[in-house]
Amino acid sequence: VIARTIIEEMHLPVHLKTVVPREGGRSDAFGSKSQIYEARGIIFKILVDNHGIFNGSDEYCAKSGGHAIRGSREYLKLCDYTNSRVIIPLQTVVDWFGFRILASAKVPLMSHTFEGSEMHEVNADLIMGTADRGQHVLNKNRDLDSEMGRIANELNLAKHYVKGESDLGARSLYSSVDLRGYENINGNFCLLNFWRSFPSEHPSYTSHLPRSHRGMSIFWRMLRPEFVAKFCNPLSPDANTQMAADLADTALHQKNISDATNFLLNKIIPSLADEIANMKLERDKFGGFGIDVTAVMHRAGINIRHLGIVRAHFWRKIDGGADIKFGTSRVVTHKSFIAQGVRRGSKLKIGQDYYRVSTDRKKEFNSSELHLDRPFGGNSCSCTDEVFAGEVSNDENSERVRALLLAEMVARTMKNIARQHLRSLCLREKCSSEHLMRIILADHLNTLTGSNSNTEEMWTEHLYFGLSERFGNCIISRADRFSLFDRTRSMLVYMVNRFSIMLGIEIKEETIKSFSHYPDYYHFMISDIKFVHARTKHNIYSAEFADAMILSARSKLTSTTSYSFEVKFDNPLVYWSFSDSKTSSYAHNEGSLGEIMGGKYSGKEELE
To answer: What sequence ranges are listed for the domain Clu (predicted)?
Structure first.
């Protein structure tokens, strides 16, 4: 509720806000002097990029909140408060009206001391990390360093050297320089700022994704903890940053990051694609054929941004046909195979035989000609249309899986476009009413179904380029740009469902039934949206939450199965529990005969 209030009052002057921002700090998009708020022991931070770290993208800045939740969750798993002095704050992110807020429990960094009758606030000492934007890096407590070493060993993070801009010498850390450690008055260590807990991908090895200006993608394209934990070498969270450059171990850690990125792309992703290809799919399109795309990807340690390259491993037909002669490796293409995602080394199926596109740089590879890795063994053919490209061992499910993954990417891209429109509306109109949000969301639902007047422009321009920006150039060929809308019709119900879930839209049941029967060009009205909920993610480890729920259930069971409960369950005529007050002279009967069988204490009894 507080996070929603902060967002809804962003356009108001400070003196009219319900929750007042902190003094100082950087100005936000509305002219406030801070993006940080505090209420009820919780720190709220609006995640917008006013400082340029994310190349001006609020969408990428919002990802830092997700990284913070993920990082603090992994640290929280390993910090048992009964055995560890390390305190990790509970955190959650709240998505509302296109904005994201990171909410963190306030940790005990301040203490109070008295000098005579005067009370003074004492701040906890920063003993690890940097708090001055990289000017100085600290690591001056051996006990905390030992704890961080234990945690890093579990997370597979490497000890590495870093050097602040104004530091004379380098220091070693187990964590990112942005992770700050404090020692409070009780001798406990409080950790803050988890958004760079894990290393980033090496941008030079993800050629399928667009390059970012100034190489800033290292601040939002992080490796997932599931992948980092199982990689063969420990990885440095600072390997790609300037603060770890030109030091004794720089080359080693950069090589490990490069190897990790290559391993992810060339081993983990093909392995997952093959696993999906051999799954037994259900018929239900609404539920994605029984595949939870997000869960499957994250379990394997693969980021959602690599959905495009996962999809490229599944078999698809190459349009245009080709001329091939027996005994030669030369293939003359009638349509560009390159524009359809074929690269050097790609696997092709021609007839019933499998080949690879030659990786020999001396052989031609262009829009009208390519060479196979060995001579063609089938009958010579002109304009054969039996050419397929893919990698997985089983092509039975390829068509449905490709449709599912494309639908997932379209839904996610449309989600981000809708959030961008909501943010722009809030900035332009200085208003963030729920009614306006319903109008925008209904408009984007209709763009998915095709009933919106600007559907063609949205699909051929915003969605097409949005897909390439977020998932890479291997999503859909340039030639298929104008058929993108038609290619996704079979998964329309799935896309609307995923779009609604990701934006917290609750559609009326009767509307869902009507839409499910006739989805094409269905027109959603504002009144079809029952509720719009704020979306939240937290850092509470699910196993710990489950343990707490079990303990709560056991305590309730114990309270209802006491001795008194067991006696009363048999419905006795007379039951004196002798639990009356010590000053009472009357003994109540709790049996079925009631107070008629009550009695009096003689005064000589001894009650335990």
So the answer is: 1-205
